[in-house]
Design goal:
Blueprint lengths: L4 H14 L8 H10 L5 H8 L3 H13 L8 E8 L5 E8 L4 E7 H13 L4
Antiparallel strand pairs: 1-2, 2-3
Length: 122
């Protein structure tokens, strides 16, 4: 599922109304905003999100310099054993509505889940 500009606008509005004090914009919102840059113009993004162009440019430059792992809030993980021998499907639903489905060998699932735990994603 691709995150739309409307979804990111809603996420920014929610963050702005629920934050307790002024502080940095959460990394998840920054990552979602950068992801929009392939489908929307910078002017449309900055105008709808209420951020300035230089902020968006800094985020995009930083991302190209630093590909760090960003933890996204996970709402639900559903491992499902497939009918094919030794196959497993894992669906991860994020709190912002996106879903990631991974299909592969059951023997690889444990190491994948372990890696997510080590990175603080679970």
């Amino acid at each position: 599922m691709t995150t739309t500009l409307d979804q990111v606008v809603t996420a920014f509005q929610h963050w702005r109304t629920t934050r307790l004090k002024r502080g940095p914009i959460p990394k998840e919102l920054i990552a979602q905003t950068i992801g929009l840059s392939t489908r929307y113009s910078k002017s449309e993004i900055t105008g709808r999100l209420g951020i300035n162009h230089s902020m968006l440019n800094r985020w995009m430059e930083k991302q190209s310099e630093d590909n760090t792992f960003i933890t996204l809030p996970i709402a639900n993980i559903e491992p499902t054993k497939l009918t094919t021998s030794n196959s497993l499907e894992i669906s991860i639903r994020f709190t912002h509505g996106a879903q990631l489905t991974l299909t592969g060998m059951e023997s690889k699932a444990a190491s994948f889940i372990s890696e997510l735990q080590q990175r603080g994603a679970l």
